Amino acid sequence: MIHSGNLSHLAPPDFRKDATLDRLAERFNVAQFVSFSPSPSGPRQEYCRLAGLPANHQFATASEAVQALFERSGEGTVNIRTFSEASSQSREFLYALQDSEAVLTALARFAAEGSFAIVNETIDVSDGGVSGVILDDVVEFRPDATPRGVEREGFASLPAPWANAAFQTVFGFGPELAHGEAARLEFSLHPAPRGYRQSHVLYWEFGPHETLPGNRVDVRWPNDFSRMMGDKAFGLLVAHLAGFPVPRSTVIGRRLAPFAFGTRTGSKEIWTRTCPVEQVPGKFTTSRGWLDPFSLLLREDPDGTAIVSVLAQEAVPAVWSGAAVQGADRILYVEGACGTGEDFMQGTTPPMALPDVVVATVHATHARLVAALGDVRFEWAFDGEQVWVMQLHRGASRSAGSIIVPGEADGWVVFDVSEGLESLRLRVQSLPTGHGLLLRGEVGLTSHIADVARKAEVPTRMIRADDA
Questions:
Q1: 291, 312 in Cβ contact below 8 A?
Q2: In 10 A of CB 430, how many CB atoms?
């Protein structure tokens, strides 16, 4: 749950780094630590936050303190961070030390140099959780990194209410992200209990910060979190967080424990959908009915690098299904077919004339999605009353009219769309340098055939079946 309120009393600017951490621990869970100051006789204990002991318990010796920390470290290792009294910026950092003797030797050296030191338990950042930062009402995070990982490309960014709901959905718990104006808080989430309070959320640093401009959060993917969950699953989760009808879906992941989200469709039928790391149009299995997810993963992705999860999704009793993309000409292309629309998306059936009510409802859904997220393209199903979001991706299309991918070519290779998706993938890979594609036959701009051409980024146009 995200609380409001200014917490500036937790981090006065003139407090030492270990004092600030101790004050943060008065309210929040922090990584277990013992801090030391330099003295003529060697390292002298300052602060201490260890599970099962009173706050700032004083040990008889530095050796006893370090041993107690090792006994409580979930990873069996500890880190040392050093700093000066005048500056909280780290001087030297030692990671994942494995025995007390090495720690005590390092502490004696740091004390002789006049450095302060914090010894804390090592936290595995690749345990299936995420780390990140909240600043005002923006949350940025990623897996397999410390909170400072948001300083590199690949982090996810969500409005704070969406992030809180996403964490509760995916992990079953969420950060108590206390925040207010001009506040910045670093956190990490962990499947196994960690830290001084032995809970699933750790807090690392709090400090004042200038308030962000009131711009909308730019929710984009792929990012490292969507790659861990699966591109398809992440897009559907975003649609759900934004308040759109998404069929009830259970995500069975390689790295994440199963979780579910979405709205009941009223159907007892299940579809099985694979979720690749990033979108690969039409390549991996989507099946009506339940399939063994473990056999499916073993068969289609034996080395475990392409597909990261499998979706068990309630069926939508679809009257019409299709996709919608906004073209380079800013026209929204709404295409589809009656029923569940698999043949249309695979490019084996041309788009059908859609009823006006279906087109109008898809247009209205698109307008709401754009208002919430910016340019998007999505697959949809219409059950006679409402449109369900079946897949969601960010960005508009470069396609318009008969031009799927703009650009000129030294030569053109004709591909008959009746040959199917897999043949098209092979044809794209074997194209001579500088050549483009002419797709012959009736195929939708929103179909997977068009998606494969766009992914290949080669000039591509559609021609009629009777064109030379």
A1: no
A2: 9
The 10s digit of each residue's pLDDT in 120-140 is 999 999 999 999 998 878 899
pTM comes to 0.85
SS3 track for 87-126: CCCCCCEEEEECCHHHHHHHHHHHHHCCCEEEEEECCCCC
Query: Where exactly are the structural domains of the chain?
Result: 32-121, 130-208, 224-314, 403-463
Q: How far are the Cα atoms of 107, 187, 279 from residue 293, in angstroms, in the given order? A: 51, 33, 19
Distance, CA of 377 to CA of 397 (rounded, Å): 8
Rg (CA), the chain: 27
Q: How confident is the model at residue 382 (pLDDT cuts 50, 70, 90)?
A: very high
Q: What is each CA distance from 193 to 51, 199, 214, 317, in whole angstroms?
A: 11, 5, 35, 42
Contact (Cβ atoms closer than 8 angstroms) between residue 425 and residue 379: no
pLDDT tier, 421 (very low <50, low <70, confident <90, very high otherwise): confident
